[in-house]
Write a structure and sequence with these properties.
single chain, 599 residues, alpha/beta, Alpha-D-Glucose-1,6-Bisphosphate, Chain A, domain 3, 6-stranded mixed beta sheet, 19 helices, 41% helix
């Protein structure tokens, strides 16, 4: 039987005159099929508009991404923009979308709602990368921005990310204010919509395209730290690039070729934009399988480097050719370490490394890049997971400088999930500029007679061997959300005393900022001055970190294992770290299986 509350919500959907008939038919079919579990998931709540926007499965229902829920979210955002207007300047929003199912329709819906509220919408004429949307917000002087994307999620997902006037995803107080306004939109009939013809005639929808592309590429050109090296080795280096059917298909090759890299080879089948992602199981550059076709092409072409960006081109994964001709996939942490070293070294050699330089990383990222930065005298500031927190720190330092107060100069930002920010003209992960920097780093290594992997090995021998592992536990739907909450609560109240055969010496709770020592001495101290977040950090006696964190965008709880050894024999270090990570992974699995409501 269907719960009365779910039955009532479904009937309200069917009786709403605003709901499209196709969306009603989808729900009627589920009712006829007695698909009670599916109906419950579609109506047990409204699709949550979180701190950065919303993301969910496509389909009819209040807990799905569709034109009605997207329209309601856009109306809430419009209401907030109107209430938060702090000057005489015209209000405007930049809007872009990726290649996913319904992305163009959702972008047009948001533009129509903005126009219906007398807010000008700068709507890209075709799919564009997330970093270009971030750039466009500042370039056009917009009040806010909207990106329609579900990043690297499977094809059945889509999402909506909100940016503020600084080009960064919203953080307090704007995120809380927008969430409150979205929740106040109780009826789909209250969503204001302007017809396309009327909006165009009144100048409330303005299409943007090649002009923004050119401005974006010119900014990328400006960031090159070693133009002579890139031009010199760009004549020889071969780079295979795959956009994984996404938005980077045009701009990434253009950025590389403008840098001087003359041999950029696109994977032809994956260079066709498609929300179905027909050649990959998951369009995620973290997944080795996603780079398989790119690597196969690289082997044919004897290429030096493989670059792969996710559908909205904010994240990039790579494979590098070794001395024996084989290709090695690099983790996000290792790519970040290479970029940190390249940027710091090039700035040092040029005499441009600021005395107050700062590099940003996250609490779940490996310490290798952080150690490299500190060795150059660069301050490392750790943030919560998510580039919006890195962007917030950049803005904080810029505002301090504008007031004439002591501040820091940003040189790089990274997170372990393959996201990098080499320059602050964008305020989110930027795979387009990052691809150019990775190619620059390959040219830098070639000048030293090395491949990128050999350069990484040099860093390991100098700073220690770092390796990481992740474990994801997926728990979907209403029941899964409760299970994830139960797991985190048990880990807080009764933390593990050992993992992988190594004692756990302390547990840090980012929800409170406190670190509690385990064992006889005990004790608690404040160690983290970060916004409250549902993250636990377990420190082991050998310096290994194990971090647990529910995903903010997917129905899963994520565990990160960050191991480090001082062993100079890299083969032996890799074996030892792999064994340790495997033992910890097995312990985590046993721990999850024992916890209540986690089956």
């Amino acid at each position: 039987m269907l719960h009365p509350a779910i039955q009532s919500a479904a009937e309200a959907w069917l009786s709403d005159p605003v709901i499209a008939e196709t969306d009603k038919a989808e729900i009627r079919q589920l009712l006829e099929q007695s698909a009670y579990e599916e109906l419950t998931d579609r109506f047990y709540r409204d699709l949550e508009f979180g701190t950065g926007g919303m993301r969910g499965l496509l389909g009819a229902g209040r807990n799905r991404m569709n034109l009605h829920t997207v329209g309601a979210a856009a109306q809430g955002l419009a209401n907030y923009i109107l209430s938060a207007a702090d000057g005489p300047d015209p209000l405007s929003v930049a809007i872009a979308c990726d290649c996913r199912r319904m992305s163009e329709a959702f972008a047009a819906r948001v533009a129509g709602v903005m126009a219906g509220n007398n807010i000008r919408a700068y709507l890209f004429d075709a799919l564009r990368p997330t970093p270009e949307l971030s750039f466009a917000v500042r370039h056009l002087g917009c009040t806010a921005g909207v990106m329609i994307t579900a990043s690297h999620n499977p094809p059945e997902y889509n999402g909506l990310k909100v940016y503020w006037r600084d080009g960064a995803q919203v953080v307090p107080p704007h995120d809380e204010g927008i969430i409150a306004e979205v929740r106040r939109v109780q009826s789909f009939s209250s969503v204001k919509q302007c017809s396309d013809r009327d909006a165009l005639n009144r100048g409330l929808i303005v299409f943007k395209g090649k002009d923004i592309d050119l401005a974006f590429l010119q900014e990328i050109d400006r960031t090159c730290l070693s133009p002579q090296l890139s031009r010199k080795h760009g004549e020889r280096l071969k780079i295979v690039y795959t956009p994984l059917h996404g938005t980077g298909y045009d701009l990434v090759p253009a950025a590389l070729q403008r840098r001087g890299f003359q041999h950029v080879i696109r994977e032809p089948r994956q260079s066709i934009p498609s929300g179905e992602f027909p050649t990959v199981k998951s369009p995620n550059p973290e997944e080795p399988a996603a780079l398989a076709m790119g690597i196969a092409l690289a082997q044919q072409e004897n290429a030096d480097l493989v670059l792969a960006t996710d559908p909205d081109a904010d994240r990039v994964g790579i494979a590098v050719r070794g001395a024996d001709g084989s290709y090695t996939l690099l983790t996000g942490n290792r790519i970040g370490a290479l970029l940190t070293y390249y940027i710091c070294e090039q700035l040092r050699v040029a005499g441009r490394l600021p005395e107050n330089a700062v590099m940003f990383s996250t609490i779940v990222s490996s310490d290798l890049a952080k150690e490299i930065a500190r060795a150059y005298g660069v301050e490392v500031v750790e943030t919560l997971t998510g580039f919006k927190w890195i962007a917030a720190k950049i803005r904080e330092y810029e505002e301090a400088a504008a007031r004439g107060q002591p501040t820091k100069t940003f040189i790089f930002g990274m997170e372990e999930s393959y996201g990098y920010l080499p320059d602050a003209f964008v305020r989110d992960k930027d795979a387009v500029t990052s691809c150019a920097f990775i190619a620059d780093a390959a040219a830098f290594a070639a000048e030293r007679g090395q491949t990128l992997y050999e350069l990484l090995e040099t860093l390991f021998r100098k700073y220690g061997y770092f390796q990481e592992g992740t474990k994801n536990v997926t728990l979907k739907g209403k029941t899964g959300a409760a299970q994830i909450a139960a797991i985190m609560q048990r880990l807080r109240s009764d933390p593990p005393r050992q993992l992988g055969g190594t004692p756990v010496v302390s547990v840090s709770d980012i929800m409170t900022g406190m670190t509690r020592r385990l064992g006889e001495d005990g004790g608690e101290r404040r160690e983290f001055d970060l916004p409250a977040s549902d993250v636990l950090i377990f420190m082991l006696a050998d310096g290994t970190k194990v971090i647990s964190r529910p995903s903010g965008t997917e129905p899963k709880i994520k565990f990160y294992v960050l191991a480090r050894l001082g062993e100079r024999d890299l083969a032996r270090a890799e074996t030892a770290c792999s064994h340790l990570i495997e033992k910890i992974d097995m312990d985590l699995q046993r721990l999850i299986e024992k916890l209540p409501d986690a089956s």
